[in-house]
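We give this protein:

***
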Amino acid sequence: MTQEELAERAGLATRTISNLESDRVRRPHPRSLQVVAKALGLSEEAAGELRARFLPGRYPEPRATVVPRQLPPAVAPFAGRLAEVARLDQWLERARNDTSGAAVFAIGGMAGVGKSALAIHWAHRVAGEFPDGQLHVSLGGDDLAGQRADVAEALTGFLLALGVAPKLIPASLEDRSALYRRMLTGRRVLVQIDNARDAAQVRALLPDAVGCSAVITSRAQLTDLAVGEGARLLNLDVLSGPEAEQLLTARLGADRVREEPQAVLDLIALCARLPLALVIVAARAAVSGWPLSVLVTELTDEGRRLDALDLGDSVTDVRSVFSWSCRQLSADAGRLLHLLSLHPGPDFAAPAAASLAGLPAGRVKAALRELAQASLITEHRPRRYKLHDLLRLYAAEQAQATCEEAELEAATGRMLDHYLHTAVSTAHLIDPAEDSPPATAARPGAVPEVVTTYEHAMSWFSEEHQVLVAVTRQAAGAGYDEYASQLPHAMAPFFDLSGRWHELNAVEHLALECAQRQDDMVGQARAHRLLSRVNQRVGDTDLAVAHLNRALGLLARTGDLAEEARVHLHFSVLYDIDGQIDRSLASALRARDLAQAVGHQPLLAKACNNIGYDYARLGDLDQALRYCSQAMHMLRYQVSHPGLEASTWDSLGLVYLRLGDFDQAIANYRRGAELFGLIGIKFLTADTLSHLGDAWLAAGEADQARQAWRQALTILTELSHPRASQIRQKLGGITVIPLEVSSSSS
């Protein structure tokens, strides 16, 4: 090439090329040499010679070939993590075929989860893949005393280990990093970087030569490395149950673990499967020789659990390692972490955290990002966060030490208001006949979520129902009886329609106890009514009737006509099941009168559907059609209630079946089944499919009938529902139509 051609390729002036060629420049800029070498297509070795020619002393050759062996001793015994080791192995295998540069692996996770142990174990496992040596440095990113390693000093250590004479080590961080990377060119070296604070701290230490690899550990989520350096990220969770048992077995011996199997399971649960906590427990058991059950007793006391996980060394003290992660938090993130200890779990969403902290959504989202970045919380599903049990205890200690009691009480109240007010308004979208507004307005700073559609309502309860149960238990235990008695009623529509009757039974018994402590007659009556529904669903009609009678007796002293109407609607359903159609109709008519008296349209629509259904069963088809049509008119123009609309289509199916209009009966049953399926009410979908099969059979279409019954049986079998036996009888050849009991609504 001519000077002009080289200058054009390198993007430099022709004069610069001329000065380099004629040696008129004593110390050219390193970047000029870099682009010239690239333009000339030089190999890395030749480019190094070029740099050494122009910059003597800055890019020296090593004095000798040195093979560093800096890895710390492997953790012994090491247990579990087979899946994580396999993933690292797979990444290394792929890196062998990658000619773009060095492979970078980053292991993240909370304090005490075993990041360093895994990294060092794996580094020893694959050391043979790196015959030119292994480098190691701990950057102290989470050191308790704040003694973080200086990156320039870390590079000096690497260069010395690679054979560079001390006097030849450049002064600047940039030049040291460049020399370090040049020294790795053509070598296969593994670099293990422990306890990095963030991505910026490790960049100068990363190799870029093909054949080299780096494995980094950090409590921070090193997503910047994934974006900028193509790092592969492995987020380490706590051990699985079997892995935790393997760890205790490796530390204590198989005989001792076999001697106390229940104590082993208890220890795993009390340590929340955190490796550091399990190792501490194993060490205490080994040194003391105590039975494992003694340690279980000590750990069971939440107030002393963190004391029991302290061996007197900051490296092996759960409190200390948690504090390392917390001390760099902003004020918002630190306060939020402390207040999250008030939340019972098992997880939470950002809006609940905002109410708990009493902060605007934007500030709370930023604090959550910071906590997740520091591995103090885990975003285990999109927009759903978890706090480890031992971290919760640590945060609770810090909250007691740093927050006034009034602040903690206010935060708890805001959290309870958030869940109660959101649950009540959301439940109204699922079943507007079940209205039980909170007695008081939400506290300032509590921001209930806004849910506007039936689908969103079911989705919200699906995400939050475990939290709501935990919050109810927490409220009952802490003396917030008003919340513990109202929350179960708000959960009832979702629990009932989704078939979670055992959960509903548990929380309604809790609601009953709290309502009794408050001497709340209406609350007690509502709890008895909903317990009646639970027992009806599981087939215990005698107990269901007993609960309703208790409810009616309580309501006689309150004058709550709407709740009395709900009780009579449920009596109507129970009488239907028992075949007492006249009594069922009388109860439904009484419910209609009460609903009209208070002007409650959703209850009135329910009553009309039940009345129409009962008239159809009694053979008065004109009245049946009149009341079912009235219910449907209200549902189309006055009341939004998808579940009741599906039930009314089912009732109309029975009316037309009794009228002998099989086509119309089939069409209505189909509409009901499709709507029940669309809104996710499985067991009522199955009931209506069963009725659809009856209509097909009456129309002489046995194959279509069997198809509908099979669909119903699949659903009922999945739910372990007792009515599955009826469907099996139909499929077995019994063609008598059993009692229709699903269309009545309560």
